Amino acid sequence: MTAQYITDRRRVLGGLAAAPFLPGRAMAALEHPGFAVPDGACDCHHHIYDRRWAYASTAVLRPPFATVADYRAYQRRLGTSRSIVVTPSTYAFNNACMLDALKQQAGRSIGVAVVPADVDAAALKKLHDAGVRGVRIQTGAGNLLGLDAMAPLARRIAPLGWHMQLNLAAPQYVEAQAVILQLPVTVVVDHMAQIPGADGVKSPAYATLRRILDSGRGWVKVSSPDTLSKSGPPDYADKSAIARALIAAAPERCVWGSNWPFPSANPKPDAVLMLALLAKWAPDAGLRHRILVENPERLYGFDPKHRPAAPKT
Question: What's the pLDDT tens digit per position in 251-284?
Fold first, then answer.
């Protein structure tokens, strides 16, 4: 891991605890994404933070609360109707807040849990019955799992048909490439593998990400373009170049996610711009439909015969 990467990452994470979750900042500028969002469109990455569940003592990120009601207001502006609720590092192994969100979303959301590497089959079955279809391994930011948890945890979730979602530092994908490619489960890479914009598509991490995609069992979330971008808004040109390259390389294994409420960003990006950028990455409406609707149905198991319109409440 390079010193520059560590410096950039600390800059992104720094100061978060003091940054208030203000609607004027988190929901700035754009009111709508600027293109027709199809029925059944899925935001494949967001978190919920609710005061009913205490933050873990190990938490590094301690953002202000952002509830299901807040998220529904965001959905109305986006036009999306499905979502993937991911347990954030803030809650460590406590998935209760995420599970409550699944109940409130009433079949329109799927969960991704965070569990210890030695989790037992009964606990996994309970999560499965509640609507969870994957587990996340995230390094840094106070997380309790490391790279050594990937293989044993993958073996435990494989019988359920779950996927493993990875949020690693870019150099760690290169370090763990051999293990990742041998995992007996589908692998979903968060946030374009956290590749710094300055490194781009010529970086070792991008080459590793392409190998994961080309394996046929790897997926990527074209999300979080604001993270480690030197170009900055509104185009995030450096990270947008990575997104366009990934979509061109594997359009059938790309999904989009907002990363709402942007827990590691300070200042927070324009929330609607995160979806509006997809029109630049995928100018064709059919391709956007694939990324927003068809691909999430394949990956997460949503019913293609029942594609809900955007929620009104």
Answer: 999 999 999 999 988 889 999 999 999 999 999 9
Q: Looking at the DSSP assignment, which residues form a beta bridge with residue 265? A: none
Distances in Å between the alpha carbon of 202 and those of 110, 220, 260, 280?
Answer: 34, 17, 29, 21
Determine contact, residues 261/63, Cβ cutoff 8 Å: yes
Which pLDDT score, from 0 to 100, does residue 136 have? 97
Nearest to 275 by CA among 81, 8, 49, 68: 81
Q: Please, what is the average pLDDT of the chain?
A: 91
On whether residue 309 sits in a domain, the answer given is: no
CB atoms within 10 A of CB 101: 22
Q: What is the DSSP letter of 304?
A: T
**Pick from 90, 88, 140, 149: which is nearest to 113 by CA?**
88
Q: What is the signed CA dihedral for 236, 241, 243, 247, rounded to 10 degrees? A: 150
Q: Within a domain: residue 200?
A: yes
Comparing C-alpha atoms, which of 273, 202, 291 is closest to residue 238?
202
Domain contains 311: no
Quote the CA–CA distance of 129 and 53 in Å, as a whole number.
21
DSSP state of 6: H
Tell me the residue range of the domain where 138 lies: 3-300
pLDDT tens digits for range 198-237: 999 999 999 999 999 999 999 999 999 999 999 999 999 9
The residues, ordered by sequence, that sit 6+ positions from 122 with a Cβ below 8 Å of its Cβ are none
Task: Name the pTM for this structure.
Answer: 0.90
Query: Residue 190 maps to which CATH number?
Result: 3.20.20.140
41 and 81 in contact (C-beta within 8 Å)? yes
Burial of 89 (0-12, 13-18, 19+ CB in 10 A): buried
3-state secondary structure of 109: strand
Give a yes or no: residue 244 inside a domain.
Answer: yes
Instruction: Count structural domains, the chain.
Output: 1
Report d(CA 197, CA 41) in Å as an integer.
27
CB-count burial class (<10 Å; 0-12, 13-18, 19+) for 202: exposed
